[in-house]
Amino acid sequence: MNILITDFGAIPDGRIDCTEAFKKAIEVVSQAGGGQVTVPAGSYLTGPIHLKSNIQLHVEKGATITFRHNPKAYLPLVRTFWEGVELYNYSPLIYAYQQENIAITGEGVLDGGGEPWWPWKGKQEYGWSAGTPHQEAGRALLFQMAEDHVPVEQRRFGEGFYLRPSFIQPFECRNIRIEGVTVINSPMWQIHPVLCEDVVIERVKIMGHGPNNDGVDPECCKNVLIKDCYFDNGDDCIAIKSGRNADGRRIGVASENIRITGNYMKDGHGGVVIGSEISGSVRNVHAEGNVFDSPNLDRALRIKTNSVRGGVIENIYFGNNIVKRVGGEVIQIDMEYEEGDAGDFTPLVRNIEVENVRSEEANVGVWIKAYERAPVENLTIRNCRFDGAKTPLVIENVKEMKVEEFYINGKLVGDKWSRIVK
Could you give the domains of the chain? Predict the structure, then answer.
């Protein structure tokens, strides 16, 4: 079954609210057992879109879906995640809960219209003015409720708490495909699958320079492919997560079996990032054949955690990647992120392999800060050449670091690598 959204009253003028048209079209296709809802060329204004099982939302070339700026449009509250903590909050702009076989495809544009939401971050560079509301009180309350083990049903936020919604969030879903579309200007995280299995994100352009405008954040997800995408973001390009602190440990679901290949990373805090919401652990990440290229991209591979977050990070392969330019580190592993060593949940980072990586320009080649009681274990760097690094290595607490044919600024890093660790 293939129906046009315009057959349900959607007007492509960018001014008339098409929320009901999307809702009716999806319901009709769902009742018929599934099919495609097609958005033809034109500009469509809407509130949240809730996908159901066996539905493909196809956004044709020349079509733009722009999401309303009014927070009240994203009520009633839905079950969601916010910075790694479960709660009831504003609906994500495109949302699915406990569905399967869903897709967003086409060559059109999804515009989150995020700028009016961005002042909620509470920073002047995003339009916040002193004396106006922002997220910090709501954020602190949410985090405290999680630490106090308040049941999720009682964590109800929304109006008055200023916690921005994600853009695209399948929650507890299976068999998800997002392909071909351009995603821009989310209120917060842009593509954020949560507790999902079998996710494919392919040939998607993801751009947004607002606060926390991460590109793709798989959280507590299994079997994820991120392929041939373009990233230009105000935060991490790809950030693999698994819940924050007590809530991540309560849910206890790792992100695992994640393949990242053929992507182009422009601006962002990091290219391939693991953490910092990492309490449920991450394992089996394979990042290969990607390009990292911008002085405004802070790092190529970044692992960030601390003893408040905890978790196990293991079996990470970063190979056959090209790092043309980064503003910070080619490789960074940081156990002093945010709160630092202030908790009782010592993280474990092990089995990290970096192979056949070429870097042309960076501030630091390899930067590692781990705890003496919990060094990074089994780090291998093989057949790599990092040129133009102002500082070659900064390494604190690594156990069983192996280097083979590793050159920094033309100099071979051998078995005596510890002598140049400064």
Answer: 1-232 (2.160.20.10), 236-422 (2.160.20.10)
